[in-house]
Amino acid sequence: MALHVYDHVTRTRRLFEPIRPGKVGMYVCGMTVQDKPHVGHMFAFVACDMIRRYLEHLGYAVTHVQNFTDIDDKIIVKAAQEGVDFRVVSQRNIDLYHRYAEDLNIRPAHLYPLVTDHIPEIVAFIAGLVAKDHAYASGGDVYFRVRSWDEYGFLSGRHVDDMRSGVRIEVGEAKQDPLDFALWKSAAAGEPGWDSPWGRGRPGWHIECSVMATKYLGPHFDFHGGGRDLLFPHHENECAQSCCGTGQKYVNFWLHNGLLFLGDKKMSKSDGNFFAMGDVLAQFPAEVIRFFLLNAHFRSQIDYGEERLREAGAAYERLRRGVRRLAERRASGAAPVPEGLLSGPGEALAKAVREHRRRFFAAMDDDFNSAGAIGALFGLVRDLNQYDAAAGAELLDAGPLDEAWALFGEADAILGLHRDGLAGLTAVAEPVVPQAVLDLAAERDAARARRDWAAADGLRAKIAELGFTVEDGPGGSAVRPAAAGAD
Question: For residue range 35-55, what is the model confidence (pLDDT) as tens digits?
């Protein structure tokens, strides 16, 4: 099976064919860096990293561009509140992104363009849209004329006339049509701004991505990533102004990842409904967080919660134990079955490995279905366990065991399951106990010291509810994750 990718325009999966043979251009909408990254942000970047890794596995030379929006209204407000230059706020959060991306084993993009480094190109692009009558200046601002492009709405499946309902012109705007959107915004006194033919100001949100994507990848490229919440209006507007500005098709495939939900609300900084990435990393290993995010199709909605992460941690450790046992068996020193021959259990394993390899790559070829691919790996662990039980310690079918090891190696390189590759997967993981659990254990120790056994038992029960056990010994108590289910 060849790679097929979901197409937002046809609403079907279609065969991926690169615009330039052997090469892939991929632009990813990066963060607006007014605040710390949260888990919802990092989901998009983990997903696009997995996609890039698979494209590279297929032999494509990928150029990966991911911007940072380092100037916008919220950044300006934040800087004013702190009494610092807006660049201080932006750079602080850009640095945090890079730290967390490294933790999550996200390969660095080839380019991280900043809006503020591309003002001349943005001004020139807007001027070109004005010259073609796709945009107009009004009161120091410049707006894109939505009705000048007949295909507006094709990406999100909306019709222009249906969009008018509920849309209004905000105070201070001088639009000719409520649907028109800002390409250039005039700067108020004391605000950051740059000179332009329309007065001092700064770019609107949508135009920056059009300019940076086309500058580094050309007017027409293969993939554009970003969260599903960016589909409209951001990507719709971006596509419209790009096509009008260049006269060419803009993107072949849009990689809209699903959103993380907390209860019935999506994770969002603006709503205060989010978990900062640094706080989550303090409670759970980075590889567990990455595994959790990849153990669903990247276009799916994911329900986020600590219990879900604990379940992911237990599943991830089961996978690691399977890889570790395979490594130990291959190095066991048992006498191998003669070359060219297989035992009965070895024949069954060889067939199983071929089937799990087929399943793994069929899933990846089906719109980068990492969840299906991970499912194939768990199937392989199960069949390796069955081989161990059937073959005993004396038999060693080197051929199928080596093929299983090779599949785990390829899978790790594609999914990025551990920063140290197979060496990390086979290492014994040190359990991570959240601080809240350690605090309960300390309270329990204090209750035991004052011989308040009822309180101690109650605290033990609370710790058990959080998925941990307390073991008492001569040297004091120790907290460990509760035993996971059988493999």
Answer: 999 998 999 999 999 999 999
- Distance from C-alpha of 295 to C-alpha of 316, rounded to nearest angstrom: 10
Question: Do the beta carbons of residue 349 and residue 384 sit within 8 Å?
Answer: yes
Query: Does the pLDDT value for residue 95 go beyond 80?
Result: yes
> What burial class does residue 182 get, using C-beta atoms within 10 Å of its C-beta: 0-12 exposed, 13-18 middle, 19+ buried?
buried
Q: Does domain 4-282 have CATH number 3.40.50.2300?
A: no
Question: CB–CB of 45/83 below 8 Å?
Answer: no
* pLDDT at residue 468, rounded to an integer: 85
Predicted confidence (pLDDT) at residue 465 exceeds the cutoff of 60? yes
Instruction: Tell me the two tokens of residue 171.
Output: 């105070």
Task: For residues 390 and 346, give the distance between their C-alpha atoms in angstroms, rounded to a whole number.
Answer: 9
Distance CA 54, CA 183 (A): 35
Burial class (CB in 10 A: 0-12, 13-18, 19+), 150: exposed
- Distance between CA atoms of 349 and 400, rounded to whole angstroms? 6
pLDDT tens-digit series, residues 255-299 = 999 999 877 677 666 666 678 899 999 889 999 999 999 999 999
pLDDT score at 478 = 79
What is the DSSP secondary structure assignment for residue 191, as one 8-state letter?
A: S
Bond prior to 233 in cis (omega within 30° of 0): yes
Average pLDDT, the chain: 91
d(CA 151, CA 205): 21
DSSP reduced 3-state for 270: coil
pTM reported for the whole predicted model: 0.86
Q: What angle do CA 464, 470, 473 make, to 5 degrees?
A: 165
> Which of the four pLDDT bands, split at 50, 70 and 90, describes residue 484?
very low
The answer to whether residues 227 and 269 touch, using CB atoms and an 8 Å cutoff, is: no
CA distance 83 to 61: 44
What contacts 172, CB < 8 A, 6 or more positions away?
none
List the one residue out of 315, 395, 389, 407 whose CA is nearest residue 352.
407
